[in-house]
Fold each of these.
Amino acid sequence: MPTIPSQMALVTGATSGIGYELARLFAQDGINLALVARRQPELEAVKADFERQYGIRVSCLAADLSAPGQAAAVYRQCQEQGWQLDYLVNNAGFGSYKDVVQEDAALYEDMLTLNVLAVTTLTTLVARDMVRRRTGRILNVGSTSAFQPVPHMAVYGASKSYIMNFTEALHAELRGTGVTATVLSPGVTATNFLARADMGGWSQAQGKLPTATAVAKAGYRAMQQGELNVVTGLKNKLLALGISLVPFRKLKLAMATRFMREGT
């Protein structure tokens, strides 16, 4: 029997896409996992696979983090189990490719609860514990949509701007504590996010897209090194740099509007 290590990572949105690939990287490094997702059967399937392949301990926390109070409830479960969280990955999130006036306001409430409030709550609670122990790594999954306003994905883009600014500010606050916070900013990636957001017809979602595996590896490496913000892919890096150098907000908006409308 392999020795079960003491380190543990909490990963949200862990049963598919980037979250699954990040969880797999932890498993490959022999780090125990607490996995959070909405569906228990999918969690149990990942648990069985990872425990068989990597000889680690995997715990399943079925929770809908888009519901108020669920992020705090997940943290309480970890406390009740006596788990020391050495890593926190806030990956769960979703978007919608519609104009604001065409979308259901209730969906936006769920989106902001998941993309913003759950991330803030888990980060705040777990970071306090990490600072007390003088060690820990936090990775929040953002998006290149954070660098400018995003017409047709206005609420999603705004939520990721929050994540980027929140995480970067936290990174500065944590200096000297032994704890780091990193934001991963991928562009369009080949995951089921595109289908859920109804983005299948968008031109930027066509052709060969970066894989969740490649994005996860970049984020995992940046987190372990305590980096501030990692943008994945050369094209995305150039776009993020270019938009950051544009001096006028109206010009940024005009560029983003053209990009988001292209091919739709």
Amino acid sequence: MRVAVLSDVHGNSPALDAVLEDLARHSFDAVLCLGDHVSGPIDPAGAAERLMGLGALCIQGNHDRWVLDAQGARAGAVDIFARNLLTPTQIEWLAGQGAEARLGTDIYLCHGAPQGDEIPWLDNFYKGRTTTLPSEAEVTRAAQGLTAAVMLCGHTHVPRTVRLRDGRLIVNPGSVGMQLVRGSPDAHYAILEQRRAGWQTALIAIPYDTESAARMAEANGFSQWGEAIRFGWAGPEHLF
């Protein structure tokens, strides 16, 4: 089995287009999307349209919840911006997603961690400009009760793989559309393939027209996103 794993598109359709073009070079049994699909100042409706066309297994992230509850206290400017651009069909698609999902018995999907979509699993989110892997005990504790061979998470935008002592694999594919504290603006996703020896992971980084995406964000009134999209060095402060 081979699956593509996308997360944290954040409405960045130019970045998503680059990933989808790369996906077209491969064959997959499934495409999995781990949430935070549309919340961003670039092209929320365009990103939703592309993701809906994939027929992917998708779950909600925390920003998807806030887009759906755009009048709520947690919704930020980019969540409200996205909600105002989505069609009723796209809102229905977003609202129909759960907080977690499974593909067969082997693959488990969540956005942050099994305990909640705002909880980081493989990275402390963020301590200043640094991200650090939590202790082995913390990471393992969050996987307690899960029997899937592969556990997928997003939320922190940092690509990482961890293999627990019992052989279970945890993968964060990174973010398609919003690079933070990465030092690279490239769009990220992951390919997982089941081989005879077990599941193997490829963490992919795809260059795309970041200048175009940054200008779209700036034209939509979100100038603070320009630097982050162009260069990928920025932290999350003031973006959401």
Amino acid sequence: MNQYHIGQTVVPYEIEWSTDRETIGLSMDGSMELTVRAPVSATINDVEAVLEDKQQWVLETLYGLAEQEDPPLDKEYLSGEKLLYNGRRYRLKVWEEDIVEPTLEFTGSKFMLRVPSDESATRTRKRQTVVDWYVEKARDELPTRANEYMQKLGIGDIEIDVRSLNRRWGEYQEGQVSLHWRLVLAPRKIQDYVVAHELAHFRHDQHSDAFWNTVGTLVPDYRDRREWLRVNGGQLRV
């Protein structure tokens, strides 16, 4: 078994040589085993060059993000169900009122979902109300998690955008940080890890040893938090 190092992360991989291929391709299955498919004319250096170029994809897939599309409608949004918020699960109470659109409130100990009494609120409609609440909270709360880290890094005036991201929790691009709104479901220390990770890119573009050292100065136990996200990220669903 070959090994590829991305900072402190060791990624085992196997190479499948093929006479029918002209390019090098990567894949990772549900067991999180990386497979490299390469033409017989390729060398180990060729393979490692592709791994270097695709290390962002390798990390994101390894952390369990590649399979996290929009979650299935597995909740009915009925009284007694629970919703995640900042790493804790809170009971949901639902009741009907003479209103036009569903509304969601959080009391600090439970969620209160009011729905129209004419039974027009479908499961999809109720879920969208819940999602809208999370997005609003994420936009209010997640950017504030960056203040301390920006001071430590000596950077400021950073635009932090909160939205839905494709297959990743955070993204750094051209001086801007984007965060997935679903992070607001995670424990705050996990939110902090993702924020610190993206802000560290203001100092280092690649996931080099220097990059991970910078992350470590901001979040000393980042390995534990990264592993938590890899294992539990799929549960951060609405």
